[in-house]
Design a protein that fits this description.
The chain has helices at 3-20, 31-38, 42-50, 78-88, 101-104, 111-116; strands at residues 29-30, 63-64. By secondary structure, it is mostly helical.
Length: 124
């Protein structure tokens, strides 16, 4: 992989982290929702959050899949931790472990934030 691709990826991850930073406590965003704002695929958002540096504080737990479910990881107990963190913020799960996105979905960043951060509000 050449250095240009590495730089582009880091820039993309930084943009993903900036958008996720906007999701308030008690709300969730989907991987696809973050991806649409940033201009990448939903899986890229997942990869970016999975590679989040420990030194970078970020409320990663506020990002869930399109069904309102916590995406299980192949190892560790981060899914249990994610559920606990969301529950502490007032997000509720149904009996199937799903979040009602009509109630808890974040509506996205405001137009001013989009403009100030180089996004075109007309795209949303």
């Amino acid at each position: 992989m050449n250095s240009e691709n590495i730089t582009d990826r880091k820039s993309l991850h930084s943009r993903i982290y900036e958008v996720v930073d906007q999701v308030p406590a008690g709300r969730v965003a989907t991987y696809g929702q973050i991806a649409k704002i940033v201009g990448c695929g939903a899986r890229v958002v997942g990869y970016a959050l999975a590679s989040l540096p420990i030194s970078r504080p970020l409320c990663w737990h506020r990002v869930v899949n399109a069904r309102g479910e916590i995406s299980l990881r192949s190892s560790g107990d981060s899914h249990s931790r994610q559920r606990s963190l969301l529950f502490e913020e007032g997000v509720r799960f149904d009996l199937k472990g799903r979040i009602d996105l009509s109630e808890f979905r974040w509506q996205g960043p405001g137009w001013l934030w989009l403009e100030q951060n180089g996004y075109d509000p007309g795209d949303f």
